[in-house]
Amino acid sequence: MWGTLRLHPDDxxxxxxxxxxxxxxxETGAGSVTLAADIPAGHKIAVRPRAAGQPIRRYxxxxxxxxxxxxxxxxxxxxxxxxxxxxxxxxxxxxGGPTRIRSGAEMRTFDGYLRGDxxxxxxxxxxxxxxVNCSATVVRMVGExxxxxxxxxxxxxxxxxxxxxxxxxxxxxxxxxxxxQRVINGYADHPNVGATVVVSLGCEINxxxxxxxxxxxTPSPAASERLPxxxxxxxxxxxxxxxxxxxxxxxxxxxxxxxxxxxxxxSDLVVATNCGGSDGYSGITANPALGWAMDExxxxxxxxxxxxxxxxxxxxxxxxxxxxxxxxxxxxLDRIAxxxxxxxxxxxxxxxxxxxxxxxxxxTTVYEKALGGIAKGGTTQLVDVIDYAERVTAKGLxxxxxxxxxPVSVTGLVAGGANLVCFTTGRGSVFxxxxxxxxxxxxxxxxxRHMTEDMDLDCxxxxxxxxxxxxxxxxxxxxxxxxxxxxxxxxxxxFGDEEFAPWQPGPTV
Length: 509
Known about the structure:
The protein is an alpha/beta fold. 29% of the residues lie in helices and 19% in strands. The model has no long low-confidence stretch (mean pLDDT 95).
């Protein structure tokens, strides 16, 4: 069996399937090479000579430029490869067309909670959320009083008490304020949430009245209802506020517990994708297998969400080709241009990505990371591009503008309405995101065995001969099982309360 993987006939590198020692001769699919150095698993090996300044291709796309002469058998990584500057030529909306949606006889179903606005939940939580960081401790105290809520109310998945670090010291109705309002409203009105209680300090910029005004603009019957608000300063301090919030939750528990799962079509699924701790195998195993699964979700009439804008730089040309029309393509390019300007203002660039863990796992440049990352979005038409935490309304593949940092990105996706998340990892990210369950997909069997209590599925079997389609089907089956109530590993471990992290792109004053 070959110890390397060749991903595209035009590639200048192959990928080591396991650690290979210097002096080993390996078959590459384009002849054999003798290794000039030890090659860690997941790292790149040159298969043809490259001069300094010449492009290096992986996935059939440029992932960077040589900084020194590279010979066949050399290790290709940070010491001889950098991002450099790409000169992209964009072809807009030239690939494919609308996806054929499966007929009723072909439709799969899951058991979910039908809400008043027609959306469907995969979980049934009660949410307690602060308007401001100053009320976060009271929210935590309230949540602790309901640790065993499922004992008396078996149809409630729990009381989720989230906290965040903003809500004041921001510009009133500035970008940070509007984003925070969108996020809180998106969680409060989420299909996985049966009821919400808000806890305010009283003097913060993010006043609950302003939150209610923003909420009333949301196109949802539930959003027209006023959220119960407990204000610490008005109640007379911490203890009294805790008791008042506990009383508010006690009122709604019987109603939330009365909800029941019913059979729902797959078209009610809104599945977010994200990756964290990526490695050299991410774009070979977990990400393309998840992309196959997302194509299936779209074929069933559901919604697949792709995100992490700074981490698609270098691969945006592939998404632009798949855009539904020029307007959708331009929205994506505009968001990338915004990020380049935003990072420049802070003395940063997109090629400051990847992270140290990504690099140790074999990823060298942001272009390489991006090309592997967008595989999560499958192959269907890109139908819409939306802002951070904006309500998802389109069916099909949708791109949400988010940062690359996992908790911040997924917070936006959940606020937008994702009722389930699929999260790929190569280094071993531990992550959950209540109220939406998170299915974690390991890129290698080694990682899956090492962190089996955290990983839901092993996508590393692709390295041993399993097909992307076979593993993709496993992911689809797991999505339907989890959507119907099966607990993910992160849920069993209790993840999800602390990972609530609304994006703050602006200043704190």
